[in-house]
Description:
The structure is a single chain. By secondary structure, the chain is an alpha/beta fold. It contains 21 helices and 16 strands. It has helices at about 5-15, 35-50, 80-95, 115-120, 120-135, 150-155, 175-185, 195-200, 210-225, 245-250, 260-265, 305-310, 315-330, 350-355, 355-370, 385-390, 410-415, 425-430, 435-440, 455-475, 480-495; strands at about 20, 55-60, 65-70, 100-105, 140-145, 150, 160-165, 170, 205, 270-275, 285-295, 295-305, 335-340, 375-380, 395-400, 445. The protein has a 7-stranded mixed β-sheet, sandwiched between helices. Helix 11 packs across helix 20 and helix 13 packs parallel to helix 15. The longest helix is centred in the last third of the chain and has 20 residues, at about 455-475. The termini are far apart.
Amino acid sequence: MVSRPDARTLIDTVLDAGSWKSWDAPPADPTSLGSSYAEELAAARAKSGYDESVVTGEGLLGGRRVAVVASEFSFMAGSIGVAAAERMVAAVERATRERLPLLAAPASGGTRMQEGALAFVQMVKITAAAQAHRGAGLPFVVYLRHPTTGGVFASWGSLGHVTAAEPGALIGFLGPRVFESLHGYPFPEGVQVAENLLEHGLVDAVVSAGDARAVAIRALSVLCDDGTGVVAGEPPEEDLRPVEAWEAISRSRRDDRPGVRTLVKLAATDVTPLTGSGTGENDPGLLLALARFGSAPAVVLGQDRRRQRPNSPLGPGGLRMARRGMRLAAELGLPLVTVIDTAGAALSKAAEEGGLAAEIARCLADLVMLEAPTVCLLLGEGAGGAALALLPADRVLSAQHAWLSPLPPEGASAILYRSVDFAPEIAQLQGVRATDLRRDGIVDRVIPELPDAAYEPRAFCERVGAALEHEIAGLLAQDRADRLAARLARYRTLGLS
């Protein structure tokens, strides 16, 4: 049988030793208590050692002050009534006033049935408090424990910027016992478990309580970074050997060329992978993560061309993942780094019916209007709308052999000549190379490959990391309104000079 920590044990496991301070006052029981419910409350307090189903307070996490809200399942199945909701909302509001990151650890069957509709509607005010905390630009990290169901999962349990879950935890909207009682047959096995949620992009990690501490420390090191400590290093020198367009395209397609995951592995620190769109989609062709390039924090969303080929081209789900990253950057004011490396978006019935074109449009709209600092990196292939969706940024960098085109050159050749044989000539004429893109004002800086990224993956990735740190530092030094105005002016005048 799996041993699962209660709320106090979890708090002691996750927070720095001896740092916990409770914020809880004695709960006010409902005035209309019936005798049987009063007896249930008294019995729950005596048996569990807790006075309510939620404990709140503050402590230190890796030396950082944080607020904590944790459920206790042994108290009436962690259910939320009026008193528990009021305790929780007061804690979230205090965390917002004191500008503390919030750690939430639900373990609950949902609404307290003994208090009926009034308890049920408490989820609204809890959600409002959690959203106000996020709206204040403060991180909200959730650790879903066994079990988390009902209104708790459908409110504050699903609102984290980063969400982890306990291994094997039962997590779902309607508990399986209730489902079977209502419908007369059991809920399918293996659906409402943490590992299945991870596979479907509904949680970012499945970790034990001990490992949750390290995950939270690493995530908050980026989420709480306001950029004041970012120092601009020297950008890499541009020492570029002239390369024909077709040679650059051929080099960008090499299987051994470093992609976005290699870049993050070799050039970034404090990496916290984030999984899925949060809406039940997880596209392996898109990487979403928190990371740091040198001293610069960032939300990273990048196309992974290896995982897009050959059977899973980037689809609308991947773009919805990208938009999750954009929202995260916008809410917390974190720099956003987009990485383009794609042979093109999915061309299929599922992609069309899933809203591919609309998701490209929404990515463009979200990104070009994003108030956070943005840097785009053309890392390799840049074909079609999937590439364009991640392009508009304050600063656009390009690897020397990266390229950008409305279609793969073979597609453009087929349109113009009904043959793919003219792809090299088309590529040269279209101005798709990094140096052409810089000439036309699409790219700001070209990062050299000496002579090819595939031959020097570590050195190349470190150059890219240094360039990203330099650009982020420069953007953080600018006024937000001025930065957005400059971005809009850039794209408004593109091609006019």
